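Thread: "does anyone have the structure for this chain?"

Original post by V.I.:
We have the sequence but no experimental structure in hand. Need at least a predicted one for the grant figures.
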Amino acid sequence: MWSIILGIVIVLLFAGLGFFFLSAVDEEDDDGTQNGSVSSSVSQSSTSSSSPAGDISYTTASEGTSGGSEDRSFRAVTDATGLASLLATMEVAPSLTADFSSSTVVAAFAGRKTTGGHTVEIRSITEQNGVITARVVETEPGPGCVTTQVITAPYHVVILNRPRADVQFRITTEVRDCSS
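Reply from O.Q.:
Generated one for you, tokens below.
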């Protein structure tokens, strides 16, 4: 009797893991935008973003769909104490250091979500007339999207190549279209 129950539990466990991994695959449309659920793994990279006039160079320090803060927030950190405070709010804090004499840490937290399919991304940081603005895009699954039933906390942390920057945030929300 117990072996049958154990067998059923193992089958259900593998089915659940299979569904999780299948639904966590990134898909890319022809225009380069991502479609479908996003992997819940945490990634750290050293990609830099900069280009047209007004854009400020920054480097992604850490991002992921889980491990961020339970609360939705957007912060610019200009010293080691602020960084320690920021990392303390995260469920899974990455190993992160910054030279605050030449940089500012900018973080976007989408907050606690009850399903997969949510992301937050700092898409650009620009300066115009002395005002630094971080453009943040939160993405959520639309009607018909298949999502994992798991608690997530998406986040994106970047290092901005400006010391003691006073950053304003412009936040927009995009709804992923899964109807096709």
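V.I.: this helps a lot. Residues 17-53 have pLDDT under 50 and may be disordered.
O.Q.: and DSSP finds two helices and ten strands in the chain.
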